[in-house]
Design a protein that fits this description.
The protein has 641 residues and is an all-beta fold. It has a domain at 6-72. Helices cover 3% and strands 54% of the residues. The protein contains two helices and 48 strands. A six-stranded mixed sheet has the order 5-14-15-20-21-19, with no helix packed on it. A six-stranded antiparallel sheet has the order 10-11-12-13-17-18, with no helix packed on it. Strands 22-23-24-25-29 form a five-stranded mixed sheet, with no helix packed on it. 42% of the residues are buried.
Length: 641
């Protein structure tokens, strides 16, 4: 390693294990240690290993050696300091002089694609469902190509410049038995598989070709993004999660078709240390590769784990949670560390800085980068007073400095007692934050001056928004749960879709629709790509499609449909149709199991609803009349009379 050897720094860490690990100046983070962590090393910088022996020596300090190998100690934390090292609703496609417009996947950041299970280029619809990937003609719904993943399943895909990138998992079972055949045992192995197809010439008679394959042993994909034809993968590798052996690989192994079919041992120089809660030690793999160029993937590993990411056009932000036991209070302290990685000239991710905030973000929409700042909204459960106190805050950090992301400002005190954050949306220099127990204040926060966030308005109403989508600079659409309150008791009464107007005077509700049912819900609450928006060229409105699961009379009857709205830019919300995959009297019957619609896409004047079972096509210019459908899997949902 550079300057001082890694192991010397590790040994020095033992001398400080009984103290507070303080880091001086701007490249420090503070962490309390307890008796639980006195026998664990403290790495003093994010740096790489020189060789496998150095890696093995470091790992041995995290594990107890037994007759069966090294077993994980499962206690404490590793302290690490740092060293430097708008939306587009639709797009156009022209083929043979004919231009088509179509809806895109609902990505958080313009220009940063997120993997999805249904995509289109206007002429084909690409669908992956469990182990199957299909290419479907958008005009006829004929299935032109099918690819089945053997011993695995497909989690999502990207589409870029005539290439499809499948993100999948594959596993194998190996059977063994003793000499007298009295008992058997099975060895299970798994990994993440990436397959890139050239679909630029696909047709009824021409199949796509595979141009690239990657496989990462013992790995699961945590998340992925694509920017300008480069895919960035974030994977947890579990080769050392519970223990390691001197005889077996204790470092990541992968395959890249650029080098052939053989296994590649990740060099020790490509393995780094990062902050980790040490309750689940594994490797976080950061991988980047070109979708179109025949070049090898860039693979690096960080000894640690991560749970959430946010990615801008220039930076990746990785969330690491830290849990520290406080002997004085008897509770655990929760801290969130934000690791920033920049995209270098080779399209690989390079560590830059670390920041620290209290609490934890709800999801990726709780984070945002804007004009050199990183904003994050968190909920913290504080036990210092002997009882739980929920604290909601908005933090603004410097996103340009190296070593440390310095705190610029903190705005606390958001929400009423016992309320947590339910939804966040950043739009430029404005943040909308919803806190709720079962009723909903929406905060509009002005961030024009990052050092002085200002609450411009609070809108209090029944119910809660679980997802917020900005239609344009003035219109917001909230999707969540409606509720009623009787004294101190509140209960949900259905799914609400609500339109808001935001200007210099604040935020006001101007449109509302409710789908009834105390137990009704929409998967948009946790799957934002189930939300579809599309603005036709020159139109003064936006189509919005939202899948809703409805339950009535304590589950005695139910239905699942897609609700299609028009959001008029003048400021009104109009329900225009309800589309379903269920035949018969769905409202009068009792639905035992259904074929739920997971995705909706729009191509020109046609709307398509896609489920695991089938794809249906409707004519939007003909009162949403049914056109045709195609079964893509065997039917598994039906009604009980």
């Amino acid at each position: 390693m550079k300057n001082v050897s890694f192991w010397k720094r590790t040994l020095l860490g033992f001398l400080f294990a009984f103290t507070f690990i303080g880091l001086l100046a701007c490249d420090q983070v503070e962490q309390t240690t307890t008796k639980e962590v006195t026998d664990l090393p403290v790495a003093t910088s994010i740096d790489n290993f020189e060789n496998y022996e150095e890696l093995k020596l470091y790992l041995s300090t995290l594990y107890d050696e037994t007759e069966y190998g090294y077993l994980f100690k499962n206690a404490g934390v590793i302290d690490v300091t740092t060293e430097s090292a708008s939306y587009e609703d639709s797009i156009n496609e022209t083929v043979g002089g004919v231009e088509r417009t179509y809806s895109e996947s609902n990505n958080q950041v313009d220009g940063v694609a997120e993997h999805d299970t249904v995509l289109t280029d206007g002429y084909h619809i690409y669908v992956c469902t469990w182990e199957r990937f299909m290419i479907i003609n958008a005009d006829t719904l004929n299935i032109e190509y099918t690819y089945d993943m053997e011993n695995g399943y497909i989690s999502g895909m990207f589409l870029e410049d005539g290439r499809i990138v499948l993100l999948a998992y594959q596993y194998t079972y190996t059977e063994s038995k003793n000499s007298d055949d009295t008992y058997y045992w099975y060895h299970y192995s798994y990994g993440a598989k990436i397959v890139v197809f050239d679909v630029s010439m696909v047709s009824d008679t021409v199949d796509p070709t595979i141009t690239k394959e990657l496989f990462f042993d013992n790995s699961y994909i945590s998340d992925a993004r694509m920017i300008d034809g480069y895919v960035y993968l974030f994977m947890n590798n579990y080769v050392i999660n519970y223990g390691f052996s001197d005889e077996e690989a204790y470092y990541p192994v992968y395959r890249d078709s650029y080098y052939g079919t053989g296994d590649i041992d990740l060099p020790a120089q490509n393995i780094y240390v990062m902050p980790n809660d040490n309750y689940s030690v594994n490797y976080m793999l950061l991988v980047s590769f070109s979708v179109t160029d025949d070049t090898p993937a860039v693979v690096n590993a960080y000894l640690g784990s991560s749970y959430q990411i946010y990615m801008s056009l220039n930076n990746l932000y990785m969330v690491v949670y830290r849990y520290t036991y406080d002997e004085f209070s008897g509770w655990y302290d929760y801290t969130t560390y934000i690791l920033r990685f920049g995209i270098d000239g080779n399209h690989s991710l390079v560590f830059q800085a670390i920041g620290q905030v209290s609490g934890s973000p709800l999801n990726q929409f709780s984070m945002d980068e804007y004009n050199g700042t990183f904003r994050v909204a968190t909920t913290n459960y504080n036990y210092e007073t002997g009882s739980m106190q929920i604290e909601n805050s908005l933090f603004v950090l410097d996103a340009t400095s190296l070593d440390t992301m310095n705190l610029i400002s903190e705005l606390g005190g958001l929400g009423l007692p016992n309320e947590r954050i339910y939804a966040v949306r950043f739009t430029g220099d404005i943040a909308y934050i919803v806190t709720a127990f079962q009723s909903d204040p929406m905060y509009k926060i002005i961030l024009t001056d990052p050092a002085n966030p200002v609450i411009e308005d609070e809108l209090h109403e029944e119910g809660v928004n679980e997802y917020i989508h900005d239609i344009n600079e003035n219109l917001l659409l909230g999707v969540g749960r409606a509720s009623e309150t009787d004294g101190t008791r509140s209960w949900f009464t259905g799914v609400k879709v609500e339109l808001y107007w935001s200007d210099d005077d604040g935020v006001s509700a101007i449109g509302y629709y409710q789908a009834l049912g105390e137990y009704s819900y929409t998967n948009v609450a946790w799957d934002h790509q189930a939300f579809t928006s599309f603005t036709p060229d020159g139109a003064d409105f936006t189509y919005v499609a939202i899948p809703i699961f409805e339950y009535y009379d304590d589950y005695s009857s139910s239905s699942q449909n897609v609700y299609v709205f028009k959001v008029h830019h003048s400021g009104s919300l109009e329900l225009i149709t309800i589309l379903s995959h269920m035949d018969g009297d769905v409202y009068g019957g009792s639905l035992w199991y259904w074929d739920s619609i997971d995705r909706t896409i729009i191509i020109d004047n046609y709307i398509y609803t896609i489920s695991n079972n089938k794809i249906q096509m409707f004519d939007m210019n003909n009162n949403f009349a049914f056109v045709t459908k195609t079964e893509i899997n065997s039917t598994y949902g039906y009604l009980i009379d």
